[in-house]
Amino acid sequence: MNFIINLLFMLIAGVDEVGRGALAGPVVAAAVILDNDIDGLNDSKKLTEKKRNTLFQIINDTALSIAVGIKWNDYIDDVNIKVASEHAMIDAINSLSLQPDKVMVDGFPLDIPIENEGIIKGDQKIRSIMAASIIAKVTRDEIMRSFHYIYPMYGFNKNKGYGTKQHYDALKEYSYVSIHRETFKPISGMISR
C-alpha cells in the first residue's frame, strides 16, 4: 500500500530544450513538474504562437514547479551545442523549487544523480515534457524578439535566430553580431569578424 501511495505522489519533472539548431542566441531549457493535466498540451512546435502563449500562462499558473536554464552563444562555442543543451537542462532541473523523484527528458538521459529517462520524441508523448517544451520555446522566443530591437536587420522577431534566407543574407551584408554562434557549421568560416 505504501508503494502505491508513494507512486501516486511521485514528483516527475519533464525537461526539454529549444534553440539547438539556431545560428544566434541561447539554447533554453525548461523543467516542469505538473500538478494536474492541462488541456491542449502538445509539442510546442505543433502549436500556434497564440496557443503556446495561452498554455505558457496556464502552466505558470498551475504547475507545482517551473525552472529555466539558459546557455548563451559564447558558452555554446566553448563546449559545443550538445553539451550546452545538456547543461541548460541540468541547470533547469537544479533550479526547481521542488526536488523531483524522477526526470523525463526529451531525447536522451542526463548524467545526473536523479533517476531519469530519455524519451525520443518525448515532447509528443509525455505531458510534463510538452509543458517544458512550451515554457522553453516561449521564453527563448521572447529573448530573440528583444534582440530584434537591437539588431533589426537580422529579423530575429520572425526567424528567432534560425537560418532563414533573410538571416543568411543579413549575415553576408552585415557580418556577425555578438549573439551569433561562431562555431555553427553552416556559418563558421563563411564570414570573418
Task: Walk me through the structure.
The structure is a single chain. The radius of gyration is 18 Å and the shape is globular. The longest helix has 22 residues, at 127-148. The protein has a single domain (10-174), classed as Nucleotidyltransferase, domain 5, CATH 3.30.420.10. Helix content is 40%, strand content 16%. The chain has helices spanning 2-8, 49-62, 73-79, 81-94, 127-148, 156-159, 165-174, and strands at 12-18, 27-33, 65-71, 102-106, 115-119. The chain is α/β, with parallel strands linked by helices. A five-stranded mixed beta sheet has the order 3-2-1-4-5.
Short descriptors:
single chain; 193 residues; alpha/beta; Nucleotidyltransferase, domain 5; five-stranded mixed β-sheet
Q: Determine the N-to-C terminus distance.
A: 65 Å
The CATH superfamily bears the name Ribonuclease H-like superfamily/Ribonuclease H
Q: What structural category characterises the helix and strand content?
A: alpha/beta
Low-confidence stretches: 1-7
Strand content: 15-25%
Instruction: Estimate percent helicity.
Output: 40-55%
What is the CATH top level name? Alpha Beta
Q: What's the number of domains?
A: 1
Order of strands in the sheet with the most strands?
3-2-1-4-5
**Structural shape:** globular
- Can you tell me the CATH architecture? 2-Layer Sandwich
Count of discrete alpha- or pi-helical segments spanning 4 or more residues: 7
Number of strands: 5
What radius of gyration results from the CA coordinates?
A: 18 Å
What kind of sheet is the major sheet?
5 strands, mixed
- The SSE string, one letter per element, is HEEHEHHEEHHH
Mean pLDDT: 92
Briefly note the CATH topology name. Nucleotidyltransferase, domain 5
